[in-house]
Amino acid sequence: MAASPHYHTDVLIIGAGAAGLLAARELAAAGRRVLLAEAQNRLGGRVHTLQPAGFRAPLEAGAEFMHEPVPLTKALLAAAGISWQGTAGQTYQVKGGQVQPDTNFFAQLPTLLARLSTLPHDLPLAEFLAREFSGDEHASLRAFATQFAEGYDAADAQRVSAWALRDEWAAGGADDSPRPLGGYGPLLHWLGAQAQAAGAAIHLATPVQEIRWQPGAATALAENGASYHARQVLCTVPLGVWQRPAGQPGHLAFAPELPTHRAAAAQLGFGSVIKVQLEFEEVFWHKRLPELEFLLSDEPVPTWWSQLPDARPLLTGWLAGPAAERLRAASLKAVLALALSSLARLLGTSPAALRARLRASYVRNWGAEPHTYGAYSYPTVGAPAARAALAAPVAGTLFFAGEGVHGGIAAGTVEAALVSGQAAARALLA
Ligand SMILES: Cc1cc2nc3c(=O)[nH]c(=O)nc-3n(C[C@H](O)[C@H](O)[C@H](O)COP(=O)(O)OP(=O)(O)OC[C@H]3O[C@@H](n4cnc5c(N)ncnc54)[C@H](O)[C@@H]3O)c2cc1C
Predict the structure, then answer these.
(1) 376 lines ligand 1 (CB under 6 A)
(2) Residue of 376, 405, 409 with the most ligand 1 atoms within 8 Å of its CB, for mutation
(3) pTM value?
(4) Counting atoms of ligand 1 from 1, which one is nearest the CA of 209?
(5) Which stretch of DSSP H or E encloses residue 422?
(6) 19 Cβ closer than 6 Å to some ligand 1 atom
(7) How many CB atoms within 10 Å of residue 42?
(8) What whole-number percentage of the chain has pLDDT above 70?
(9) Is 315 in contact with 281 (CB distance < 8 Å)?
């Protein structure tokens, strides 16, 4: 029987998402021996541009938009020779199957922001709404704020920080959101190629189960029996992995344990998202919803968007937050049926008629995704301190990055992951 392989390196990076790949490139370029261990059989993590059978072009199973401002993402896209394109078209609201004449979804935002700006202590959003907007006359404002936090931030209104939403909403984060042309995937593959060209090694299909460490040295044990010896480790696993209970698949153990980091990770929010992609033979919704860009509704799968200005007949359904959480264990077939019935009501047709026009479908349930267990982080009350605690290096030996450790208005994005990966690489080199 062959002995399990041992590898030696200066820096072991765990996770080949945006944070890990950018850090690998920076560290390898600075002359460090870098080895990157990735659990899955592909690069990218929560960036996954792919073309399933039947689709005419690639689609985004994960990240899709650039939620401005994203200076680092733009600088890297430009360096990789990848351009981006703004979205275009009309936003519609459909309630009870009726297209609403007034589609200003954000009309209540100023009222909400005015009250949020005078809030002296941070509170979970639900508590803030119950306290400040309790009457029946505020029912639609409460519904708007809750839907926005759940749908956009994938957050639980019972836990998400009112202060953090105030900052995010005041910055107008949802306003301008271009897409990288051809998707985010090519950018991450370019980062991976650059890291390898600078000498980094990438081991795919290598889930790390345990990191044994002492100041100045660490050994990571992988599921396949391989061990990785390094002077320093940069861990970029998602918050969902941090939050996995010991004994569950996907749990990552530290020996000795890191109780402060583990408690900080438990305090932060990590929401679920289900993304449903439906490609039709042609665009048939333009009579009911001309120039459809975004559609917001009260359906079980409430949010939909097209690819405009790209005229491709692809509609993307989006279900996020507690509603997606409840469907964590649902079959892909059941989710597809739910999405088709929602969309049929929104387009004033039947699921059977939609199926007759459907060319291909693809469902990705991120709450059920191995090695991720959710979509992206959201700020709870006390999140800035928790993120700082999670990002804190240990004994100059263990370092941490990934979107979950990065706060501010970019929280939960590719930009956050890239910024955190760059910052960790610089801390390692200091
Ligand atoms: C459905 C969805 C839509 C999104 N939409 C947007 C958007 O429009 N715009 C935007 O900016 N952001 C969006 N995001 C968020 C964005 O994708 C993430 O913030 C970002 O990609 C995270 O990068 P990361 O490097 O921090 O983590 P990841 O990309 O998750 O990388 C971490 C890697 O660690 C690996 N790993 C985990 N455990 C182990 C282990 N034990 N051993 C080895 N490897 C391990 C994982 O497999 C993964 O590849 C979206 C995310 C989802 C899920």
Answers:
(1) yes
(2) 376
(3) 0.97
(4) 41
(5) helix 414-429
(6) yes
(7) 14
(8) 98
(9) no
